[in-house]
Amino acid sequence: MFLDANEIRKIEGNVKAYLQDGILKKDPSAKDLVGIYMQNAERSFATASLLLDISDSSELKKANKMEPDFETYIWVLVASYYSMFYAANALLAKSGLRTSEKIAHKATSDALVVYFILNNKLAKSMYESYQESMSIAMDLTKQDMETFMKKAESLASALEDERRKRGKFQYNMKLEMKRSKAVTSLERAREFIKEIRTLVRK
Questions:
Q1: 18, 32, 111, 167 - which has most CB atoms within 10 Å?
Q2: Start-end of H helices in the chain
Q3: pLDDT tens-digit readout, 42-66
Q4: pTM as predicted
Q5: Angle between helix 175-201 and 34-56 (nearest 10)
Q6: Hey, what CATH class is 5-201 in?
């Protein structure tokens, strides 16, 4: 579902505040960063693709001396999202806009709406893909870190007991679901980068 009128008003207010606070800046020299952002987008996408290939291939796991059950679908999602994030920043830079490091992800997302979605320069479906990928990546990395910390605490307090009962490292999602989400995210990133590449070349 796309943004409703209240959400759009809120986002427009956010962007106005970002500009006042220097979180989003109008800077003609930002155009010099387009190539760097697109290179980062392409490399992040290539990284996501490679991680998916390794996760799916027993031959690649063996060649790289990895365990047979090695998989990194969460990081496919994260790298896919970052490829979109960098591409989005390339598009902003092309228009003379640059975000600061402070709340960069939210500022980038909101700026996309105001400068590219509301005026139909970028398809709404592209923004929806971007939002979905951002949400999943942020949620998964948070879950991954929380799971890791719980695991570390458990190991520190009861190492012997943990050794006896430890099985495979489990996340909240089943492996098949993680892979499905990773593949979907990679395809979204592919389409998003393709669209942005066209826009920044104009």
A1: 111
A2: 5-21, 34-56, 58-63, 73-94, 104-112, 124-157, 159-165, 175-201
A3: 999 999 999 999 999 999 999 999 9
A4: 0.81
A5: 150
A6: mainly alpha
